[in-house]
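User: If you would, consider this record:
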Amino acid sequence: MVLFFHGAADAGRKFKTTFICWTAITQLTHHGMLFVPIGYTFGAGMFKMDSIRGGSPYGAGVYAGDGTREPSEIELALAEHQGKYMASIVKRLAQA
């Protein structure tokens, strides 16, 4: 099983990062790996527009800016949610 965490220096590079993730998804699929996107399971946090942030239904992300920007609380919470979500999927598959 596979999930993605991605980072970009600015909003323009987010598109490129998303494209690279999509390219990677097809390669992983050819090897029989399962991609686990988070979709909209993060709830209302996914739709907050009060500040710039990384992340999408495909996975957690961060805007790095010029390298001095630290991940925001919402970006960190999304990454933690993604890890827990992946663990819950793995647990369910292991019990099957």
